[in-house]
Amino acid sequence: MKAYWAQCRFELKRSMRNRRLIILSLLLPLFYYFFYVNLYGNSSQTLSGLPWKTYFLMSMASFGTIGTVMNSLANRVAVERTQGWLKLLRTTPLTSRQYILSKIVTQLLLAFLTILIMFAAAAIFTHVHMPIRLWIGALLGIMFASLPFMALGFTIGVLAGENAASVASSAAYILLSIFGGLWFPVAIMPHWMQHLAHWLPTFRMANVAWRIVDHQFPSTTDILLLLTYFVIFVVIGGLAFNRDQKNLSV
Amino acid sequence: MTSILEFQNVSKNYGSKRAVDNLSFSIEKGTIVALLGPNGAGKTTTMAMLLGLIQPTDGKITVLHGNPRQPATRRQIGAMLQNVSLPDKISVQELLQLFRSNYPNPASLETLLQMTGLTAERHKDASKLSGGQQRRVQFALAMAGNPQFLVLDEPTTGMDVNSRRDFWHQLRGYTKNGERTLLLSTHHLEEADAIADRILVIQHGKLIADGSPAEIKAKTGWSYIRMQIGEGFTAADLQCFLTSEDECSMEGRKVQIRTRDSDSLLRKLLRTELPLSQIEVSQGKLEDAFFAITNKENYEEVTVS
């Protein structure tokens, strides 16, 4: 237990000190948020029954969260796996499970901070007002929905080398976000794109938040699809990780 | 004597290539063992197997009466590997604390910093240190758990002469009371000669020599006579005393003769009027024996690992 918390603290310290990465992954969603909210009016527009600024805040909070949890994880796992650090850790009593769990805890905390900063900025500067339970519900909802993206980041880190992992996770990040309706509302997409969006974890992630701030529980479809993606990525990532660790190049 | 490590008919194949071939040996508690062999002989594979990093294709490895894949066994082992980059954004002290937290009876932080001479660097980013300093950090990490069994793969790579001397000095302190065991590989043969109680030479994945440094050196049967020869004389003047097997080389005024029978050759040489001085007889360096055993002529083949 002591070893496990030490590993978590260690991962957290390293992540928090990587300020450049945190700022960069927050900058884009914050910029988009303020740009579009100002462009399309701060007042009366609604989308799926929600004020535009509230709707788009949930989109951008989801977008920002994926950016902080997925990209950094893919990169870090790839580096540690290919540059011997993981090999050295494996000579210690630390188990693979503790290693992976400490990464998940760290990424969840990063997700929490990302969402908190986005929500605070929106509440202060664009006057988004909601009952506190909706804020908390949306925050927890987005954190829960970030799990499949962590698993995807981990899988990319296991399958790709250091450079390829950065490229692959950035590409997945941008494409999934656009096609999942985080940048433009699904409602204004052509029909075939709407159909595609409904199958993507990015849409389901934001939909959890959209529904919560609209006083609804997340739909069964949202939860089932997110869990399915999570399980798929965990299985692929887990198998690839075990294979990689069995055939360590020494 | 308890055995700390036991290899029983261990083999490892990579595809069709056999990296380790039916290797059997055991290591007694309290010994310092050096694993030597030419590049690609299977040293790193052997170490990776005993650390549980890779599985042997065949055979059985017992470490501290247990399985190296079990955390219970790993709690008693410290390891230093090759090609490890330390993580960034973390200080030397934080890294050591992380590793210490993995073990039930860790060495104290101050002890670790002092013994590796890293006290002044304790708050620096570990990944930004020089190669030799990073190697010392890794040594400190290996020592963090106060291990019973220390496994070091090429520990002095990247260290300068002074660091290497300090390093070997620290290692001697580590095993002094005979309670702890050390297995290391190095390409500095003179260092292996100085520190090891026992030397294992492997080639093509097989154990080809096993013994104390003196036994290994005697194994070749060669002795070496080194001396100074006065002005106006050359190695050719000694040629008549040598057998066809003996070899004589000269550099400046220094002459070295390799022979099977140093006693009779020495007697002959001393009876002459030749101006010979500073005569020295030795079993040769470990290096000479190593080349003879492995049939390697080219030093590069041995040093680059």
UniProtKB/TrEMBL annotation, chain A:
Annotated Gene Ontology cellular component terms: ATP-binding cassette (ABC) transporter complex
Q: Which PROSITE patterns match?
A: ABC_TM2 (PS51012)
Q: How does it sit in the membrane?
A: Multi-pass membrane protein
| Subcellular location as annotated | Cell membrane; Membrane
Q: Which keywords does this chain's UniProt record carry? A: Cell membrane, Membrane, Transmembrane, Transmembrane helix, Transport
Q: Member of which family?
A: Belongs to the ABC-2 integral membrane protein family.
Q: What is the name attached to this protein's record?
A: Transport permease protein
From TrEMBL, chain B:
Q: Which Gene3D superfamilies match?
A: P-loop containing nucleotide triphosphate hydrolases
Q: Which UniProt keywords apply?
A: ATP-binding, Nucleotide-binding, Transport
In terms of Pfam families, this protein maps to:
ABC_tran
* CDD domains from the UniProt entry: ABC_subfamily_A
Q: Which InterPro entries match?
A: AAA+_ATPase (IPR003593), ABC_transporter-like_ATP-bd (IPR003439), ABC_transporter-like_CS (IPR017871), ABC_transporter_ATP-binding (IPR050763), P-loop_NTPase (IPR027417)
Keyword hit for Cell division? no
What's the superkingdom here? Bacteria
Q: Using the record's annotation, list all stretches that form the ABC transporter domain.
A: 5-229
Q: Does the keyword Transcription apply?
A: no
* GO molecular function per UniProt: ATP binding; ATP hydrolysis activity
Q: Which PANTHER family match?
A: ABC TRANSPORTER ATP-BINDING PROTEIN (PTHR42711:SF17)
Protein name (Swiss-Prot/TrEMBL): ABC-2 type transport system ATP-binding protein
- The species this protein belongs to is Alicyclobacillus tolerans
